[in-house]
Design a protein that fits this description.
By secondary structure, the chain is mainly beta. The chain has a single domain, classed as Sandwich (Jelly Rolls), CATH 2.60.120. It contains no helices and eight strands. Strands 1, 2, 3, 4, 5, 6, 7 and 8 form an eight-stranded antiparallel β-sheet that branches. It is globular and about 35 Å long. The N and C termini lie close together (10 Å).
Length: 111
Amino acid sequence: MEQTLHVHADNVPAENADRGITRQILGYLPNLMLVKVHFAKGAVGRKHSHVHEQVSYVVSGVFEVEIDGKKEILKAGDAFVIPAGLEHGAVCLEDGVLIDTFSPMREDFLS
C-alpha cells in the first residue's frame, strides 16, 4: 500500500488475514499503524504475542477477548489495551469490526 495522508477506505483492498477475518491497512507511519479488521461470527483471532503495543476499539459486534490468560466479553464501544509481549486472542461471537492501532507499525502486515 502506498502511504498517503488521506485514506478513503473504499480504495483500500481488504486482505484475507485468516478464516473469517479480513483486514484493511488504513494508514501507517514508522511508529504507528491503523488497521480495520472485519470478523465473521465464529472467527478466531488465534492467541499470539508480538513486540508491538496495541490498542483496539470495538466498532461493532461482540468479542471474547483474552489477554494474558484473562477473558472478557467486549461489545461495540468497548476497547482493549495490549502491552508488548503479552499473549492475546479473540473469538468473534457476533459479526463485528475492530479498529486496531499498533506502535510501532506492523511491518509484517506490509509483506
